[in-house]
């Protein structure tokens, strides 16, 4: 799971995040993901709004990215007002060579999926450690509290050992921005993520899983500040 608080500077994340902000053009409607990597993008967009008079509107995916965007001075809108976005930028917890990603380390994957799928172009920003030949990190699954037991049983039948995500500074579970629980589901290696995604989606009470198949490109930042871009 990624480092959720960006108290330590990461040159790789910074390189990817800042480069991705340069892909945003005047007039764009921008989906703003959640996490420590895209936080660099949001702050850089704020700088461009201030210093280059860049005219954009952003749609956030969490209370966290909302707070960062407001502090950075990125004008915000909602999907209700702006349902079609030009570009969405977001981090990931792991991705493979087909640009399939696992997201949701910050429990924001449901809104992230809605926002990224509302965009014409979806760019993932990452550091090199998240690249993997085969996806293998636990898949976050957001479930309605009412359906948790059934979801746990059916996720076990799919081969996972679901763990209810615990809050860090509160007793009990993490409650998502949508009022739900998150089950972290370790499936080991995932040779066929598309098939697994379809099976998880069929479980009643599952709001959304963290397998993303809609990335158009992944920007990987390097320690020396350079970047590598993988495209579909
Ligand atoms: O729910 C959180 C998101 O999917 C994040 O985009 C993902 O966990 C990556 O976060 P970070 O950039 O902090 O590694």
Automatic annotation (TrEMBL):
Source organism, top-level taxon: Archaea
Keyword Iron-sulfur: no
Catalytic activity: aldehydo-D-ribose 5-phosphate = D-ribulose 5-phosphate
Pathway: Carbohydrate degradation; pentose phosphate pathway; D-ribose 5-phosphate from D-ribulose 5-phosphate (non-oxidative stage): step 1/1
Binding site residues for substrate: 34-37, 90-93, 103-106, 130
InterPro entries xrefs: NagB/RpiA_transferase-like (IPR037171), Ribose5P_isomerase_typA_subgr (IPR020672), Ribose5P_isomerase_type_A (IPR004788)
Gene Ontology annotations for the cellular component aspect, listed alphabetically: cytosol
Gene Ontology BP, a term: pentose-phosphate shunt, non-oxidative branch
Keyword Acetylation: no
GO MF assignments: ribose-5-phosphate isomerase activity
Enzyme Commission number(s) from the entry: 5.3.1.6
Keywords: Isomerase
Active site residues per record: 112 (proton acceptor)
Subunit structure: Homotetramer. Homodimer.
Function: Catalyzes the reversible conversion of ribose-5-phosphate to ribulose 5-phosphate.
NCBIfam families per record: PRK00702.1, rpiA
Entry's family note: Belongs to the ribose 5-phosphate isomerase family.
Name of the protein: Ribose-5-phosphate isomerase A
Organism of provenance: Methanolapillus ohkumae
Native organism taxonomy: Archaea, Methanobacteriati, Methanobacteriota, Stenosarchaea group, Methanomicrobia
């Amino acid at each position: 799971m990624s480092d959720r608080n960006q108290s330590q500077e990461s040159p790789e994340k910074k390189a990817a995040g800042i480069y991705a902000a340069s892909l945003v053009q005047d007039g764009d409607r921008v989906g703003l993901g959640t996490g420590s990597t895209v936080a660099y993008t949001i702050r850089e967009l704020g700088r461009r709004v201030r210093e280059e008079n860049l005219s954009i509107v952003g749609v956030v995916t969490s209370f966290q990215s909302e707070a960062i965007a407001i502090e950075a001075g990125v004008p915000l809108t909602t999907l209700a007002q702006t349902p079609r976005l030009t570009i969405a930028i977001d981090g990931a917890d792991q991705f493979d060579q087909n640009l399939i990603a696992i997201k949701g380390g910050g429990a924001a994957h449901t809104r992230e999926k809605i926002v990224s799928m509302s965009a014409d172009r979806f760019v993932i920003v990452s550091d090199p450690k998240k690249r993997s030949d085969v996806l293998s990190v636990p898949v976050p699954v957001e479930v309605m509290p009412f359906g948790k037991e059934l979801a746990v049983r059916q996720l076990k039948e799919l081969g996972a050992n679901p763990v209810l995500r615990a809050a860090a500074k509160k007793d009990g579970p993490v409650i998502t921005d949508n009022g739900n629980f998150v089950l972290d589901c370790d499936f080991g290696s995932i040779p066929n993520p598309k098939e697994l995604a379809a099976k998880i989606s069929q479980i009643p009470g599952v709001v959304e899983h963290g397998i993303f198949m809609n990335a158009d490109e992944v920007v990987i930042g390097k320690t020396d500040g350079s970047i590598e871009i993988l495209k579909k």
